[in-house]
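Deliverable D4.2, example record:
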Amino acid sequence: MLNQNEPRHVMMAISIGVLLLMPVFLLAVPMFIAKALYEVPTSWVVLAPAKGFLFYGIGLLFLFIAFFILFLLRLNKTAKWISALSFLLCTLFIAEGTQQYVGVAPDHLSFKRGLFASEQRYPWSEVELVTYREFPEEGGFSKFDFHFTDGEIMILPENGQVRYLHNSIRKKLTQEDIEFQRK
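Output generated by the structure prediction step:
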């Protein structure tokens, strides 16, 4: 009887481990992956946007569900199908999260909004207007809104890394004669 329950309890232990490691994973991995995939030697900063962190969180939740369902439904055939579907959803959400970033370099600005979106790279000369929102309506960090000549908008949250570069960004805007508004 003990041997019948052993695989089931392994799934329980794995699901608890995933649940406990989720916060650590969410704090470190999205930024590490964004920097590993998109940072170039001349980059000032590469960030994973909040939406990317949300996709990672949802993906990890599906990973937890995949293992917990196997424990809860005693490794039966239905549990295996639900678990496989949850694992697939986990993979899709984490893949979506890895494909989102915002980057600033001395010669260009770049961003990617998702798995199926193409990477957008703009030289500073194509920036039409920059709006600095010190107290955004949605709350959170102050934000730079870069408006490009083709109508695209890139939002750069002013976290600790960007705050360090605030003066460099403002200097670059002055050099390129880009209109700057403060709201």
